[in-house]
């Protein structure tokens, strides 16, 4: 990874003083998406377009030579995101995840290739993190009201014959991935791919833009973002304890970023897997002293998954640094005093 990719990040990594909270207006926040265009990009204009997708607002900002090229490229990117949303949304009754949730053990399902690839990545990350990353916590999120019950609104739900699976089993022990995009159900399981699917959609949107001749820009899905080409983007995060305050944490190029934080609520959507609980019972646990965790990585899907792992691990531990190093990733941790620690 080049020094340019993490400009403004490693340069201040060793600094341990606090960064002053600075209020930034919404107009300034927009400007952080479009820094001064380099001379060789002056012929193209930074154009922006946004749509509600993936449970958030997805904004695409790209350098395009004209309106026609801009519309064609963004249409393709948004269409790609919509495909992925339809396949991996826990909320959609026709999604692959809904089919898996309603499948009995022994059933073999064919899913979209996007779902198969994301499940494969999720299993790999679950294994590498010793279970800290665990997409099978969906039953807990349903119980907390953060997710809808699978089958809600149909006859199966009305008859209450959809059995809630055991909470927090292992993804790798619940399904197996067969050839030709098939998934074999080993145990009843509700899977919420959530952020990792959103990150995957961002990655795929960038590929779609590049296929339409777009050389540089940024795709931002509610904070899960990827910057590509000869373009620089300032990452700024809100301080959860003071949400009107925004802090710049890095300037990146050809890199992705995802953030996990407690905004306006407790961490009801961050579920501690059983394996992490067992480890804490043996070794003790460290109270999370950070309010916001951002991860920078080559892939947006990986960046999002790593925010959960860093949150549940002790960020100051050797294991946390080893996990980040494995994925060639970096982290920026914000505490309640406005101090940013970089790993």
What does this structure look like?
It is a single chain. The protein has 343 residues and is of the alpha+beta class. The protein is 34% helix and 24% strand. It has helices at residues 26-33, 67-88, 96-101, 113-128, 138-143, 155-159, 171-174, 194-211, 274-283, 300-312, 318-326; strands at 45-53, 56-64, 108-110, 175-178, 182-185, 217-221, 224-228, 233-239, 242-252, 255-261, 290-297, 330-335, 340-342. It has an 8-stranded antiparallel beta sheet. A hairpin with a 4-residue loop joins strand 12 and strand 13. Helix 2 (67-88) runs antiparallel to helix 8 and helix 8 packs antiparallel against helix 10. It is globular. Mean pLDDT is 78; it is low at 6-42, 153-161 and 264-287.
